Amino acid sequence: MNFIAVLVAAIVPLIVGFIWYNPKVFGTAWMRSIGVNNPDEMNAGPSMALVFGLSLLFSIMLSMSMVPMVIHQMGLMSLLQGMPEAKDAKIELLVNGQAIEYAGLFRTFGHGALHGFIGSLFIIVPVMSTNALYERRGFRYIAINGGYWMISMMLMGGIICAWQ
After folding, report:
1. What is the 3-state secondary structure (H, E, C) of the chain?
2. pLDDT tens digit string along 105-123?
3. 95 has which bridge partners?
4. What percent of the chain stands above pLDDT 70?
5. How far apart (Å, rounded) are the C-alpha atoms in residues 14 and 58?
6. How far apart are the first and last CA of the chain?
7. Are 154 and 70 in contact (CB under 8 A)?
8. 92 has which bridge partners?
9. Tens digit of each residue's pLDDT (9 = 90 or more) over 36-49
10. Which CA distances in Å does 84 have to 72, 75, 90, 134?
11. Exposed (0-12), middle (13-18) or buried (19+): which is 130, by Cβ within 10 Å?
């Protein structure tokens, strides 16, 4: 696991959030969707230091969980763990009678972004949308937050996958 890539990817949701939830982008629409009409009402909760600190912690946890989702070699490496003939840089497998080099396949930004999109679409959005439905939030709330997580996870997956 490349811990530097994981930490850099963990910062992505904070950066995207600063842009996405800016009043000139989706911030005003998002506040209306949660019933807040005055930005000063947002300061009534926990301190922003606590909010950003916990957000970063949760982003690190999400980033770490994305590693096996976007890097296919993680499953292979766990199978070959402890085998002295398995090398870090190149691993040759016998698949259908043909040897293929596996270590560098699918390690691109686009491939990681695709898996980030799939993960957000099939994990984050359903969980978030279920909560939103029970909280009686509207489609605008779901679309704004779902879009935020799709963009964030696509960038996170791209960074993690491409950073070798």
Report:
1. CCHHHHHHHHHHHHHHHHHHCCCCCCHHHHHHHCCCCCHHHHHHCCCHHHHHHHHHHHHHHHHHHHHHHHCCHHHHHHHHCCCCCCCCCCCEEEECCEEEECCCCCCCHHHHHHHHHHHHHHHHHHHHHHHHHHCCCCHHHHHHHHHHHHHHHHHHHHHHHHCC
2. 678 999 999 999 999 999 9
3. 98
4. 80
5. 11
6. 9
7. no
8. 101
9. 888 777 777 788 89
10. 21, 17, 13, 53
11. exposed
Neighbours of 113 (CB within 10 A): 21
Q: Which long-range contacts (CB under 8 A, 24 or more apart) does 47-53 make?
A: 52/14
- The structure tokens listed for 155 are 């960038």
pLDDT tens digits, one per residue of 64-112 = 999 989 987 666 556 666 666 655 545 555 555 454 555 566 789 999 9
In angstroms, the CA 67 to CA 160 distance is 7
